[in-house]
Amino acid sequence: MLEFNLQPETKKKATSGDLYDVVIVGAGPAGMTTAIYTSRDGLKTLILEKESVGGLAATTHLIENYPGFPDGINGMELMERFRKQAERFGTELVEFGEVVKVDPRDAGRFEVHAQGGQVYQGRTVVLATGSRPKKLGIPGEKEYYGRGLSYCATCDGPFFRDKDVIVIGAGNSGLQDGIPMLDYANHVTFLEFLPTSRAERILQDRAREHPKSTLRFNQQVTEIKGDKTVTGVVAIDRETGEEQLFPTDGVFIYVGYSPDSEFVADLVARDKWGYIHSDENMRTKVAGLYAIGDVRADNPAQLSISVGNGTRAALDIREYLLKLEAEG
Amino acid sequence: MALLNEEILQNVTEMLSDMPNAVKLVIFTKSKDCEYCPQIVQLAEEVAAVSDKVTVETHNFDAAQDEAAALNIEMAPAIAILGEKDYGLRFYGIPSGYEFSTLLHGIQKASVGISDLDESTQAFLGSLKKPVHLQVFVTPTCPYCPRAAVLAYEMATESDLVHAEVVESMEFQELATEFNVMGVPLSIVNGKERVEGAAPPEMIVKAIKAALA
Question: Was domain A149-253 assigned CATH 2.40.50.140?
Fold first, then answer.
């Protein structure tokens, strides 16, 4: 069946000179939730997004565990609804506006520098940059990106109709995005490093019971092989120590995520993986600077948690700004 | 049965409500090997029905070779999105899924005739001396793809020397194979420089420079 999705581009030009009450870095579920609250509350709100709206959630084919959608909902569609809701209350949005630096100036004023040289000013700044798919860092990974190796099964899966594919990583995201390929690929092999899958039971069952799928555990992938395009994946069985070549036409990598926090490395406290520490009100150690969603330390990467974080930050921002005004 | 549901149609109506100039969608269909040809025509007609600025003209690619050649169209199904002049916006295949956005943005661009690119990109495109052929390979299920596609349309709108083709990879598998496309979006400049992913304008500019060097 043919489907048609709309992704209207917003063309409100945010002006660098204006002082915003809230500047949010990242238009994923966390950032857009804060924006819905703050703009509805009458606060002048700007979101800077380095790619396009929706973050990782937008690449999820079907989201089945977000409350309120009994039949599940397409990730992009849900994110479009978030965006619409934020814009309805006056949130301004700049896409392709990658932030390279956050600079705290006098009390209650930050300068947020974008890659194109624009400088936005905010009384508060919310870091909601999320995380990006982790790379394996093995030979062949870089060479074959776009040549049979991908990090987005929703985007590139259709190139592998009637072909064999390997999904590296049988956690939630690997299974969630790998299972839809079973509809059209010849075979899908899931290679997991751990002895078991940590994915939700329902996803594991779907993958296990499908006649066209194989799940292999204890597999440490060491190399991507190919000539012009991918031809195989080399993995070591961690139990037996045996090395095996798995021939394949395509490889999809789902080995977790790493946070997008380098640009604030010397400003906030981060854990050893780079996730930003923020307290229960989402405050970082810098007054007026918040961290929410997947980029926040000790936060399970779940849509509803990001939404909760976004709400919490918005409520605290209101208090913070009131206090700032009272202090004059 | 209608292809577009009421909610989408309402959004389309809104998006196309304040278009300054008329836009003509010239569609080339094929009699053979074209799974979605009837739907492409139907889709265009449903869009045209909600805007008095949009019209549709349909040709059979095999019969109307002169018309196709005049628009630099060498394969079908194809849609040429024409504004007051031909800005060089083309879509090959059916603009379904996320690509429906690309079609609508193409219509908006062709109507307005002015790009929304930043000043430095505009200046670069203004300095072009040689033709630039942008091909953006997409799939309907790729949420990042309309960004790459719309950027190509922006560039074509900005410069008469830039021609922008968005290609639905599943319907043009031979071409996709020829260019070794296995991931989208993929932008190809003048048949040689490749840019993977929804890249910002600077990266496409860099690829154009490399292709022309």
Answer: no
